[in-house]
Design brief:
Helix content of chain A: 25-40%
Number of strands of chain B: 0
Shape of chain A: globular
Structural class of chain B: mainly alpha
CATH superfamily of the largest domain in chain A: FAD/NAD(P)-binding domain
CATH class of the largest domain in chain A: Alpha Beta
Number of strands of chain A: 34
Number of helices of chain A: 18
Distance between the termini of chain A: 22 Å
CATH class of the largest domain in chain B: Mainly Alpha
Structural class of chain A: alpha/beta
Largest sheet of chain A: 5 strands, parallel
CATH topology of the largest domain in chain A: FAD/NAD(P)-binding domain
Number of domains of chain A: 5
CATH superfamily of the largest domain in chain B: Alpha-helical ferredoxin
CATH architecture of the largest domain in chain B: Orthogonal Bundle
Largest interface: A-B, 22 and 22 residues
Order of helices and strands of chain B: HHHHHHHHH
Strand content of chain B: under 5%
Radius of gyration of chain B: 17 Å
Largest sheet of chain B: none
CATH topology of the largest domain in chain B: Fumarate Reductase Iron-sulfur Protein, Chain B, domain 2
Strand content of chain A: 25-35%
Oligomer: heterodimer
Distance between the termini of chain B: 28 Å
Radius of gyration of chain A: 31 Å
CATH architecture of the largest domain in chain A: 3-Layer(bba) Sandwich
Strand order of the largest sheet of chain A: 10-7-6-18-29
Number of helices of chain B: 9
C-alpha cells in the first residue's frame, strides 16, 4: 500500500500570492494513498529539504509529491533529499504549480483549483511509480572542440592542461578565427596577433591537442560520455606531412584573382594560398574554384616548383571517425550582410567599409600595410565617419533585435587609432547609446572624446551618397535638433554580428537548442551559462551570444572546466527512465526503430514457447545506454509493447484521468 | 495635459496604429527625412511629443503640412515606429476638427452651381487652406 507525502511550496510569494497553498495541501490529503500533506515557504531551502527527509522517515512514506517550480529547476534537489532519507529518488514526483500555474494565472480561485488538479495528477502517477535504479556508462576521455577561434583554442588548451586529449575541428584552412583578423584589442590596445598567435602555437605544439583544419563535423551520434563523430577532412591538395611551408607555390601561382577572405576581400590572393603569415598549420591549400589546373587542366606550376613534392591534385576528402566524451561548441560569428541597408551605399561606394574591413586596413599585415588609405583611390582620408548600430537593435526585420555588444568599444578604438596615427584627421561617430559596461571601458571611451577630440554625435545616419569623390553623409544630431551633412572621405559601418551560418547545422547534429537568432541556448541563463541543455555539450564564445575577447576567454575556460569535470569521472550514471519492449506484445513491425532519433532500438529473432509449441518471432530490444527516454517509440508502437520506465502509458493515463475527474 | 489634448493624443494613436513606446530615440527618422529643413518640429520630436500628449504645438506646426509623406522614416525606422503615420494622423485630426470648417454653411447657397457636384461642396467643408 503506497504511503504518499505531499509537500506544497510557497516559493516565497511566487506561488503563494496566486495559489492558496494551504487549500492545495488540504485537498491533496483526500487523495488515494496520501497519508501526509503540508506546505512550507521555501521547500528547496536547507530547512525545507530537511523537513521532507524527516517526514519521509516519520511517516514511513513510500513516495513524495512536491508541488513547486518546474522539475527542470529542482527535481534533482528533491530527489537528493528523498535519497538522503532512504527513498528511491524515482519515487519523487513534481507538480509544477509555478511556471504552469501561479506565474500564468491572475485569478486566485482559478489558480488554486488548477494547482489542486496538478497535485492530484502527480499523486495518481506516483501511485503507479516503481523504484528505478540508474545504470552506469563509461566515459571516453577525449574532448572535441568545434571551432578554432580564440574560444576554441582557449577551451582546448585548458582541457589539455588537465591531461585530457582534445581535437579541434576548424572549417577554414587555419585556426585563429576572427581574432586573427583584428588589429588592436580594447581597452589596452595591444595587438591582437601578438597575444593570439602564441596561443595558436601553444595549441599546435601541445601533445594532447590534435588540430583538424579545413575540416568539418559531418555527423554526431551517441550521448554524453560516448559521442561518435564523423569529421570530414577536406582535400587541401597539399600533403601536410611533406609540406615545409616555404611558400614558393603561393608566390608562383599565376592565378591572382581570388578574393582574399582574410583581408575581407580588400585584395586578392592566389589559388594556392596560406591565409596569413602566422597561420597554423603553415600549409597552403588550393582553392579549386580559382585554380587553373582544376578549371582548365593546364598549369600545375605550383607542383613543378614545390621543392618537397607536396602538391597532390588527386587528394580526396577524408572521413575520420572518433569517439569523444564531451563536445565544446565554439563556432563563433560573422558580420551580417548589408544588403538590406541601401541607405549606407555599402555595395556602391568602396570607401564605405565594414568595421572588420577597417581592422584589416589598419593592420600592419593588411592590404595597405597598416597605412590608412581609402580603398577607392588609395589616398589618405581626412574626414572619417563611423556609424554604430548598423543592423543591431533593429526589430523591423532588416537587422537583428539584439545589441551586438562589441561595436561601441571597437568604434572608440578605431576612432582613437585614427587620431593617434593622423592627428589632423576629423573623426565623427554617430551613436544611439554608447554602451561601455566593463572594466576600464567607460574610461577608454571617454579618452576618445576628451583626449583625442573624437566628435560623438547622438543620432543616426539616414543617407550616404557619393559626390565628386566625397561621401555625403546625411544624419541627425538629436542634441542640436539638427540634420547634419558631413562631407566625408571614408565611412565605417559597425555592422551587427550574427552566429556563424554553421551554427544551425551543428545544433541539429548535436540536438542542442538554439534561439530565434541562432545563438546556442544555455542550460540556465544564470546558473549554467556554459552548458547546453544537451548533456555533454558545452558552449564557448560568441556562438552563445555576443561577447568581447576577455568574456570569450573566460567562458572558454569555464566550458573547459565543465568538460574536465565530466572527463575526470570514470563512470556516468545513466537515466533509468528509458524504454523497454514487452516481447510478448511486440509484433516486430519496426515502427519504433524508424522513429527512434538515437538509434537505440534493434531487432532480434527469439524463440518463444507458446501453447506447447516453439515459434520464432522478431522482437524489438532497446539499448538502454543509448535510449534518452524521449518516448517517441511508445507513441509509435501499435501494439502497446513499448513503454517508458518512469512514464509508463498507465501512469500517463492515470494522470489524465485524475485531471479529468 | 489638457483633457482635450489627452483625448486627441489617444485618437491620433488609434488612427495611426502607432505604438510610440517602441521608439528608442535613435533619430533615424530625422536622419532620413528629406524635408527636415522645412520643418519647425522634426520627425523624431513628433514621436515623443505625441507620447507626452503634447499635441497643441504639433497642430500649429507647419511640419505637418511640409511632410512629403515619402515614408522614408517609416521604411528606415529600426523599431517600426512609423513616424509618418503619426503625422498623417495629426493632419487628419486637424482637418476633422469641429469648427475648423473653412466654408461657412450660409455661404453655400451663393456658391451652388448646377454643374458643381454635391460631393465637392461637402468635401469643401473639410478642406484646409494654407
Amino acid at each position: 500500500m503506497p504511503r504518499i507525502g505531499v509537500f506544497v511550496c510557497w516559493c516565497g510569494s511566487n506561488i503563494a500570492s496566486t495559489v492558496d497553498v494551504k487549500k492545495v495541501a488540504e485537498a491533496a490529503r483526500d487523495e488515494p494513498g496520501v497519508v501526509y500533506a503540508t506546505d512550507y515557504q521555501y521547500m528547496c531551502s536547507e530547512a525545507g529539504q530537511s523537513m521532507i527527509s524527516k517526514s519521509i522517515k516519520d511517516h514511513r512514506l513510500t513516495g513524495i509529491v512536491v508541488c513547486s517550480c518546474s522539475p527542470r529547476m529542482h527535481e534533482t534537489t528533491f530527489r537528493k533529499a528523498a535519497a538522503s532519507a532512504g527513498l528511491n529518488p524515482y519515487m519523487v514526483e513534481i507538480a509544477n504549480i509555478r511556471e504552469q500555474c501561479s506565474w500564468i494565472h491572475k485569478d486566485r480561485t482559478e489558480a488554486t483549483e488548477k494547482a489542486i488538479v496538478l497535485a492530484r495528477a502527480a499523486v495518481a502517477k506516483l501511485n503507479l511509480n516503481n523504484p528505478l535504479t540508474a545504470g552506469e556508462i563509461p566515459v571516453v576521455k577525449r574532448a572535441l572542440v568545434i571551432g578554432g577561434g580564440i574560444a576554441g583554442i582557449q577551451s582546448a588548451l585548458d582541457i589539455a592542461e588537465a591531461g585530457f586529449e582534445v581535437d579541434i575541428v576548424e572549417k577554414s584552412p587555419t585556426i585563429g578565427g576572427k581574432m586573427a583578423q583584428l588589429d588592436k584589442t580594447f581597452p589596452t590596445l595591444d595587438c591582437a596577433a601578438c597575444i593570439l598567435t602564441p596561443k595558436m602555437v601553444d595549441a599546435a605544439r601541445n601533445e594532447k591537442i590534435n588540430i583538424f583544419t579545413y575540416s568539418e563535423v559531418e555527423s554526431v551520434s551517441g550521448f554524453v560520455g560516448n559521442f561518435n563523430v564523423r569529421i570530414k577532412k577536406k582535400a587541401r591538395f597539399v600533403r601536410e606531412k611533406l609540406c615545409s611551408g616555404c611558400g614558393v607555390c603561393t608566390e608562383k601561382c599565376p592565378s591572382r584573382k581570388a578574393e582574399n577572405e582574410f583581408n575581407e576581400g580588400l585584395d586578392n590572393r592566389g589559388a594556392i594560398y596560406i591565409p596569413f603569415a602566422q597561420a597554423i598549420p603553415n600549409v597552403p591549400v588550393i582553392d579549386t574554384s580559382s585554380c587553373l589546373k582544376f578549371k582548365t587542366g593546364k598549369c600545375g606550376i605550383c607542383a613543378k616548383n614545390c621543392p618537397s613534392g607536396a602538391i597532390d591534385f588527386e587528394q580526396q576528402d577524408e572521413i575520420i571517425e572518433r569517439q569523444y566524451g564531451a563536445i565544446v561548441v565554439a563556432t563563433g560569428y560573422k558580420l551580417i550582410s548589408l544588403k538590406n541597408f541601401d541607405e549606407y551605399s555599402y555595395s556602391q561606394c568602396p570607401d564605405v567599409v565594414t568595421s572588420l574591413e577597417f581592422e584589416r586596413i589598419m593592420n600592419a599585415a593588411g592590404p595597405t600595410k597598416g597605412q590608412l588609405l581609402r580603398p577607392s583611390d588609395k589616398t589618405h582620408p581626412h574626414t572619417i565617419v563611423f556609424v554604430q548600430c548598423v543592423g543591431s537593435r533593429d526589430t523591423s526585420g532588416r537587422g537583428k533585435p539584439y545589441c551586438s555588444k562589441v561595436c561601441c568599444m571597437y568604434t572608440a578604438k578605431h576612432a582613437m587609432l585614427v587620431k593617434e596615427k593622423y592627428p589632423d584627421a576629423e573623426v565623427h561617430v554617430f551613436y544611439i547609446d554608447v554602451r561601455t559596461p566593463g572594466k576600464n571601458f567607460e574610461e577608454f571611451y571617454r579618452r576618445a572624446v576628451e583626449q583625442y577630440g573624437v566628435n560623438y554625435i547622438k543620432g543616426m545616419v539616414g543617407k550616404i551618397a557619393e559626390k565628386n569623390g566625397k561621401l555625403i553623409v546625411q544624419g541627425s544630431d538629436l542634441i542640436a535638433n539638427e540634420q547634419v551633412v558631413i562631407e566625408a572621405d571614408m565611412v565605417v559601418l559597425a555592422a551587427a554580428i550574427e552566429p556563424d551560418p554553421s551554427a544551425r547545422k551543428i545544433a541539429t547534429m548535436l540536438t542542442a537548442s538554439i534561439d530565434t537568432n541562432n545563438f546556442f541556448t544555455e542550460a540556465h541563463p544564470k546558473l549554467r551559462p556554459v552548458e547546453s541543455p544537451t548533456a555533454g555539450v558545452f558552449l564557448s564564445g560568441v556562438c552563445q551570444g555576443p561577447k568581447d575577447i576577455p568574456e570569450t576567454v573566460a567562458q572558454a575556460s569555464a566550458a573547459a572546466a565543465k568538460v574536465i569535470c565530466l572527463l575526470s569521472k570514470e563512470k556516468l550514471l545513466s537515466n533509468p527512465c528509458v524504454s523497454h519492449s514487452d516481447e510478448m506484445l511486440c509484433s516486430g513491425c519496426s515502427n519504433c526503430e524508424k522513429v527512434c532519433p538515437y538509434g537505440a532500438i534493434s531487432f532480434i529473432n527469439k524463440t518463444f514457447k507458446f501453447a506447447g509449441k516453439f515459434e520464432i518471432r522478431r522482437v524489438a530490444i532497446v539499448n538502454e545506454a543509448i535510449c534518452q527516454g524521449c518516448g517517441a517509440c511508445t507513441v509509435a508502437c501499435p501494439s502497446g509493447a513499448m513503454d517508458l520506465k518512469g512514464f509508463t502509458n498507465k501512469q500517463i493515463l492515470a494522470e489524465v484521468d485524475a485531471i479529468c475527474r | 495635459m489638457l483633457v482635450v489634448e489627452k483625448v486627441l493624443a489617444e485618437d491620433i494613436l488609434r488612427i495611426s496604429g502607432v505604438n510610440t513606446r517602441k521608439c528608442m530615440k535613435c533619430g533615424k527618422c530625422s536622419a532620413s527625412c528629406p524635408a527636415f529643413n522645412e520643418m519647425d518640429i522634426h520627425p523624431h520630436q513628433f514621436v515623443s511629443m505625441i507620447e507626452r500628449g503634447d499635441i497643441k504645438k504639433l497642430i500649429k506646426s507647419k511640419s505637418i503640412w511640409n511632410c512629403l509623406s515619402c515614408m522614408a522614416c517609416v521604411e528606415r525606422c529600426p523599431k517600426n515606429v512609423e513616424p509618418a503615420k503619426l503625422i498623417e494622423a495629426v493632419r487628419l485630426a486637424v482637418i476633422r476638427q469641429q469648427g475648423a470648417n473653412h466654408l461657412k454653411a450660409d455661404k453655400i447657397p451663393a456658391l451652388v452651381d448646377e454643374r458643381l457636384p454635391q460631393q465637392a461642396i461637402v468635401s469643401a467643408f473639410r478642406k484646409y487652406s494654407k
